[in-house]
Amino acid sequence: MIHPSPLTSISAVTGHPRWDSRGRPTVEVVVRTGDGSVGRALAPAGASTGSGEAVDLRDGGPAHGGYGVDRAVDRVNGPIAAALKGLDAADQAGADAALEAADGTAGFAHLGGNATVATSLAVAQAAAAASGLPLWRALNPAARRLPLPEVQIFGGGAHAHGRLDVQDLMVVPYGAGSFAEAYAWCNDVYRAAGELLDRRGARAGVADEGGWWPAFDSNEAALSALTEAIEAAGRAPGDEIGISLDIAATQLADGAGGYLLRREERRFDRDGWCELLLGWLDRYPVVSIEDPFAEDDPVGMAALTTAVAGRVQVIGDDFLVTDAARVHSAADTGACTAVLVKPNQAGTLTRARAALDAAHARGLTAIVSARSGETEDVAVAHLAVGWGSGGVKVGSVTRGERTAKWNELLRIEEELGVDARFAGRSGLGLDGGPA
């Protein structure tokens, strides 16, 4: 038996109720080690969720709309603290295995995925603090690459009460020479898009992730407007900046094998839906598409992936739910070319890292992602760099819970200085290898 170092031995684990960007309760966990180091983390929450995700533990009842987390906090202060006390914070896999053993379910239904992911992240932060390093460097001292950002410009779907059927219309600035330049370009596009909406009387507000909440008559009108906004920002669509779509098609499935565009009152069978999406990809500078078919439609996913091979990145989110076994299965069937990695989908960092490693092993791109319900926690910025992901997705350029993460990535790039390498187009995995 390997005994933990007295310096990084976990001396205390405490849970606390906090609040997220949607005004809902969430869980914060603080982990302390023997040398006095402290790690702190908050759990995010999604709006559009896959059925295979780790399960948040909520209180139900009338208080806070049923979203209370008192039970999850109690789990942290009770069985989780008991399971982790005395373990080595530097042994992330050991701590996460203890969480799995204490829970005993496949999706952390007993302890709550919100409790376990906050705990797992806090353990990592405590170990990094004890080493005197930022989390990204503690994860990989040789890390140099800044990921390609996916930045939301228009929000729809579950993020904007169905104002658009497509959930996210984003830009990917792969033509930039640095992360800082890439992010500045995205801000320019965001501003140009807002001005365009104002001229058309189509600006309805701001969606959950900070993107504009537009009032378009059709989904394709949003694609056209985004292309126009890229041009208005002085950038070349398809050359310097491309479009990334999150279809979140599980939300559009009609339960009978078809898909509904409710805003347009149009229904499609699988073949018709694939034809519609391929038409969008042909007419607009789309370089990435996420969950184009429902989580239970691998045939549709594989058909689209085959049709766009080599020219458009196809991402699995609800389809894969940050699960290594599903990643391997998708690679076997050619269902997608990229994996969205969301730690809270997996429930622990070890499980999330396993999904990312599976992607890299099978030649798929990995994109570390935040959620629509976020906090000021910036861990995903560190994970994206430390884990060497090709891309990073945290929302738009507005709202503090989003800019906190973008600004952290800018700090990391500055800290790396001349050693920094921006992923650029290679972050899409379209140039002959995984990103």
From TrEMBL:
EC annotation from Swiss-Prot or TrEMBL: 4.2.1.11
Swiss-Prot/TrEMBL keywords: Cytoplasm, Glycolysis, Lyase, Magnesium, Metal-binding, Secreted
Positions annotated as active site in the UniProt record: 209 (proton donor), 342 (proton acceptor)
Keyword Transferase: no
Record text on cofactor binding: Binds a second Mg(2+) ion via substrate during catalysis.
Annotated residues for binding of Mg(2+): 246, 290, 317
Cofactor: Mg(2+)
Subcellular localization(s) per the UniProt record: Cytoplasm; Secreted; Cell surface
Enolase C-terminal TIM barrel domain residues: 143-430
Cited InterPro entries: Enolase, Enolase-like_C_sf, Enolase-like_N, Enolase_C, Enolase_N
Catalytic activity: (2R)-2-phosphoglycerate = phosphoenolpyruvate + H2O
List of residues binding (2R)-2-phosphoglycerate: 167, 342, 371-372, 393
Region of interest: Disordered: 1-21
Family annotation (Pfam families): Enolase_C, Enolase_N
Enolase N-terminal domain boundaries: 10-139
SMART domains named in the record: Enolase_C (SM01192), Enolase_N (SM01193)
Source organism, top-level taxon: Bacteria
Bias (Polar residues) ranges: 1-12
Enzyme class of the recorded protein, top EC level: lyase
Protein's pathway: Carbohydrate degradation; glycolysis; pyruvate from D-glyceraldehyde 3-phosphate: step 4/5
PANTHER family membership: ENOLASE
HAMAP family in alphabetical order: Enolase
Function summary: Catalyzes the reversible conversion of 2-phosphoglycerate (2-PG) into phosphoenolpyruvate (PEP). It is essential for the degradation of carbohydrates via glycolysis.
Family, similarity comment: Belongs to the enolase family.
Name of the protein in its database record: Enolase
Lineage: Bacteria, Bacillati, Actinomycetota, Actinomycetes, Kitasatosporales
